[in-house]
Every structure is written in C-alpha cells, then in structure tokens.
Specification:
It is a single chain. The chain has 461 residues and is α+β, with helices and mostly antiparallel strands. It folds into 2 domains: 161 residues, Creatinase/prolidase N-terminal domain (Creatine Amidinohydrolase, Chain A, domain 1); 292 residues, Creatine Amidinohydrolase. Helix content is 39%, strand content 14%. The strands form 6 sheets. The protein has a 5-stranded mixed β-sheet with strand order 6-5-4-1-7. The radius of gyration is 24 Å and the shape is globular. The two termini are 40 Å apart. The relative contact order is 0.11. The protein binds manganese (II) ion (MN). The site of manganese (II) ion has 5 residues, from loops.
C-alpha cells in the first residue's frame, strides 16, 4: 500500500467535500465459483482500496463527516480460521498502516447505522455492483434491493470521481509498473505468434507473466485472429500464415492499478500489403488522437477527429467516397469503428465504471450521444491534467454488419459496398496505448512497446 498519509489526505478531502452525514463504504467479499469454499481470487472494491488501502475481504467502513471520525468494521480471525488460513495481522494493525485508529467488530455496524437512521442523519453510499453487497445495503439500511439505485448518494459519487479522476505521481508509478508487465506480455505475444500456434498458448504465456510478477490480468485477455469481434474471449483458433492477431490485454499491480494495451500482430511475421494499408490508417488515427489529447479538449471531439482520419484513409483505399467530415457526421465511420476511442484507466481498467459511466465521462452539459457507435464512447468530456486515458481506435470488418448496412442501402452515397465486400474476410486492427494528460500535453505511459509496422514486424519475426 501507499504511505498512510496518502489515504489520510484522500479521506480528509472526501469529508470536506461531503460536508455532513455518514459515508458507508462496503468492501468486497470472497465470491464462490462452484461451491462456497472454492472461491475466485479476491478483488477488493476499487473505491475501498482508494480510501482505505485494505486489501482483504469482509470489511466495511464508516466516515462520520460531522465529527471527522473514521471506523473500519471487520472481524479478526479465530483460531479455527487460523488453522486453515494461517495467522494474519490484526485488523487494528492493518488499519494503523492506513491512518485509521478506530476499528470495531462487524456486528457493531448495524446498531451504529440504526442510531444514525433514528437521528435522521443522511447515510451516503455508492452504487453497488455485487449481489452480496446489494443485500447488505438492503439489510443495513432497510432499503429494498430494487430501489437501492434511487438511494445512492450522487454527492458521494461526484466526490469520489472528482478525486479518482486525477492520478497522483505514486498512482502513475503504479500504472507504469503495470505497463512494464504489458511490455512483456505484448512482446512475448509478438514472438510467440507463429503459424500452427494456438491462441490459448499465447494467452496462457501472458497470464504467466503477470502471475510470476505478483500481478494479475486487469481484465480477461482478448487475443484473437478474429479481431473484428470487439471483445472476443475465445482462444481456440490455430493461427495461420496471413492471419493477424489482435492482442488487447492488461496487467494489474498488487496495489490494483491497471494497464490496457492493444497491438495487432502479423502471424507470419510480416503484414500483407492490404494489412499494412489498414494498419497505417489506424496508426495515423491513433497518433493524431494522442497528439490532440490536451487539457481542455473534449474527448468527443478527439473521437470525431480519429474517426475522420479513419474515414479519410478508407476513402484513399476506395471503400468510402464523398466529403470525409460529412461522412463522419452521417455516422459512416461506425460501419468500421463501432466503439469508443477510449476510457479512463486507474484502479479499474474502465476506471470507476461501477460508479456510473456518465458521471465519469460526461457532464451536465456534455451528454452522451445515443447514436450507434457514439453511444459506446465512455469518455466524452474535456480532458484535464492528471487524467489517464486509453486511446484505442480500430478498423473492424464485421461481415454481419456490412451485410445489414448493404441490405438497408445505409449511407449508400458514402460507402462503396462493392469495395467493402472484399474486406469481409479481413478481420480487425486495433492499436491502444495509455496516456497521461499533462499541462504540457499528452505523455504516453510506460516504456515504448513496438507500435509502428516496422517495429511490430521486427519483434514478430
Ligand atoms: Mn481499453
């Protein structure tokens, strides 16, 4: 964990932002896979980690903003537990390391909250995404689970987003530690991707890299020769010469910080001419988007710019015709680029998504565009120094989507369907990097991972 002062300062600011009432944080529980004692690896809630740094199950915390009091609730292991799990530091000891002096057994949480309810005090809590924590809120606060979303605290969401959106130096160092693992993952995948190798061998090698470094995957690996499927988690294809494999993968450090990098790898070691042409368009789109990622610039405008570069490149290849900006205005890019340009990244790979994407990526005046493609843009608002974002344009040739648009004669004035037909077997290309927005402009985080055609080919052959 970080120095205790980091957590103390974060909570201090939260107390002053919220002003009155109690704040209730629920940590995560161990979650069973197939029977109660066989559990998924534990992952603490990211906001709990952010404010309390305590990476163990079975905890809750209450901050009394009126009195400035903070208490962590949890039970120490019994001798029966220690027989199975070994000795652990006492909760009190763990809490001292994050600047909390008051702890209490879990059974004292309910009476404390009951007293607060009796006194008509407000109890702030965040949206819950785990069923057991939904049930805990129902029990603790006597709010039926179906209406809990109506009772979450918008001021608390906003206060948490306001802090977590701006990464401190020690957080940047964590993200770069995750990116060191990404470097190993990506370059290993480039070297391993050969004709006859199964995708899952590469996925397994990447997972070994993070496990051996006391990390884990920050999300299930996407490694596929069918990169046109945006979130393809099937790893059963045998790679052949001429295939390109999309490797969208990330690591998480022991403190919980993520990386998220995508490279597209030529299985034979060399891209074909056609693959080079599409790769070069995505590369130019990404480079342009990264350069544009400066403080004050709205990401929805960067997304539009990146889309225009994509469409302009496709126009040069004869797949699109007409005026490029009018084509993007008409949504032509969404035939080839169906998702968003990127998202915030930090303790969650899609940072704070559990708090509500629109609180993280949009504002009261900058609203999400509900149209196809645009609605998948998780982050649209203006960039500020301290934001860490991903920039991940791509071109995806999805046969079913092409067939549907063609049948509907959709955007027929802009799309040369006869030319697009020839790309239905192409697959997809995505390039993704993690960027810190600074006063001086964008900074690509981590050591450089091969990204140009020449660099990727050199590492892949
Ligand atoms: Mn991403």
């Amino acid at each position: 964990m970080f120095a205790s002062n980091v957590y103390i300062e974060r909570r201090k600011r939260l107390i002053s932002d919220i002003g009155s009432g109690l704040i209730l944080f629920l940590g995560n529980e161990l979650s069973p896979m197939n029977y109660p004692d066989n559990q998924y690896p534990f992952r603490q809630d990211s906001s709990f980690l952010y404010f309390f740094g305590l990476n163990c199950p079975g905890l809750a915390a209450v901050i009394d903003t009126d009195q400035g009091a903070e208490c962590v609730f949890g039970d120490d292991l019994t001798v029966d537990d220690i027989i199975w799990m070994g000795p652990q530091p006492l909760l009190k000891e763990k809490c001292q390391a994050v600047g909390i002096s008051e702890t209490a057994p879990l059974d004292q949480l309910q009476p404390l909250l009951d007293r607060a309810v009796d006194q008509d005090r407000q109890i702030h809590f965040l949206p819950q995404y785990r069923p057991e924590n939904v049930l805990k809120i129902q029990e603790l606060l006597d709010i039926h689970q179906t209406v809990i979303p109506d009772h979450v605290s918008e001021p608390l969401i906003r206060a948490v987003v306001a802090q977590r959106s701006f990464k401190s130096d020690e957080e940047i160092a964590q993200i770069e530690a995750a990116l060191d693992m990404s470097y190993e993952m990506q370059t290993t995948a480039m070297k391993m991707s050969k004709p006859g190798v199964c995708e899952r061998e590469v996925a397994a090698a990447m997972e070994q890299i993070v496990l051996a470094r006391d990390g884990r995957l920050s999300f299930p690996t996407i490694f596929s020769i069918h990169g046109e499927t945006l979130h393809n988690h099937y790893h059963g294809n045998i790679m052949s010469a001429g295939d390109i494999a999309v490797n969208d993968s990330g690591a998480e450090t022991p403190l919980g910080y993520a990386s998220d990098i995508t490279r597209t790898i030529p299985v034979s070691g060399k891209f074909s001419q056609r693959q080079k042409e599409i790769y070069a368009i995505v590369f130019e789109s990404q480079t342009t988007a990264i350069e544009a990622s400066k403080p004050g610039v709205e990401v929805r405008d960067v997304h539009r710019l990146a889309s225009e570069v994509l469409v302009s490149g496709l126009k040069d290849l004869g797949l699109v015709k007409g005026d490029v900006s009018q084509a993007v205005e008409a949504g032509v890019h969404t035939l080839f680029f169906q998702c968003g340009l990127g998202h915030m990244m930090g303790l969650d790979v899609h940072d704070m998504e559990g708090l509500g994407e629109d609180y993280v990526g949009y504002t009261d005046t900058i609203k999400r565009n509900p149209e196809f493609g645009w609605r998948s843009l998780r982050l649209g608002k203006a960039l500020e120094p301290g934001f860490v974002i991903t920039v991940e344009p791509g071109l995806y040739f999805i046969p079913e989507l092409i067939d549907r648009w063609k049948a509907e004669r959709k955007n027929i004035q802009f799309v040369s369907y006869d030319a697009v037909e020839k790309y239905k077997d192409f697959g997809g290309i995505r390039i993704e990097d993690d960027i810190l927005v600074t006063e001086d402009g964008p900074r690509m985080l981590g050591g450089p991972i091969p990204r140009t055609i020449d660099e990727v080919e050199a590492m892949s052959s």
